[in-house]
Specification:
Blueprint (H helix, E strand, L loop, with lengths): L3 H11 L6 H11 L3 H7 L16 H10 L5 H7 L14 E3 L8 E6 L3 E9 L2 E8 L8 E3 L2 E3 L4 E8 L2 E8 L7 E4 L2
Antiparallel strand pairs: 1-6, 2-3, 2-9, 3-4, 4-5, 5-7, 7-8
Helix pairs in contact: 2-3, 4-5
Length: 183
């Protein structure tokens, strides 16, 4: 959720004192963001959902800030005295390679329409089993330490046909949209 000050500014501009689930779609359309994002911002997702306390990406908050009459999210935060972007505490859904058993299969997705399924081989190494619309290919072996939902995919090394391709960065625009252990 966002700070109460920002939520109050959104409510004031929208002309409401409180927001309910039924208000989320019209408000989202007015701002130009998704209904799901509005629900997350106001904590209108399940109380046990990890999405409940997630702050939207800065690019989304730039859209909200512009709707509120600011040039950027940074300008909005500076006005309300919350302009420190150097760090933040947040909850993250993470899969750490060191905590996996060999043979564990993981599936992750990211935009646009990319799906990867891989098997953990041990020592931070994974074998790509399936790849849809990704530059990672079936049969690639990759080395990574962890995967984090809504964050960029950082691979230390990709080995293809026995040859190192170097490091790899994926999901640069919006992060991993889905992350799960499937076996």
């Amino acid at each position: 959720m966002l700070s109460q000050t920002i939520l109050d500014k959104i409510l004031a501009k929208y002309g409401k004192e409180t927001i309910y689930s039924a208000d989320c779609s019209p408000l989202a359309n007015e701002i130009g963001i998704s209904e799901t994002t509005v629900k997350r911002m106001f904590g209108l997702v399940g109380k046990d959902s990890p999405e409940r306390n997630r702050t939207p990406h800065n690019s989304t908050m730039d859209i909200v800030a512009k709707w509120l009459g600011y040039n950027s999210y940074k300008e909005l935060l500076q006005e309300i005295g919350e302009g420190d972007f150097s760090s933040e505490f947040t909850s993250m859904q993470t899969i750490e390679a060191t905590k996996l058993k060999e043979g564990t299969q993981i599936q992750f997705q990211y935009e646009p329409s990319r799906v990867v399924v891989m098997t953990y081989l041990g020592d931070g190494e994974f074998l790509i089993n399936e790849s849809k619309n990704s530059k990672l290919l079936k049969g690639d072996r990759i080395h990574l330490t962890h995967l984090v939902l809504n964050q960029e995919l950082i691979v230390n090394e990709v080995v293809r046909d026995g040859r190192s391709m170097g490091g790899y960065r994926g999901a640069k625009n919006g992060g991993l949209t889905s992350l799960e252990i499937i076996i």
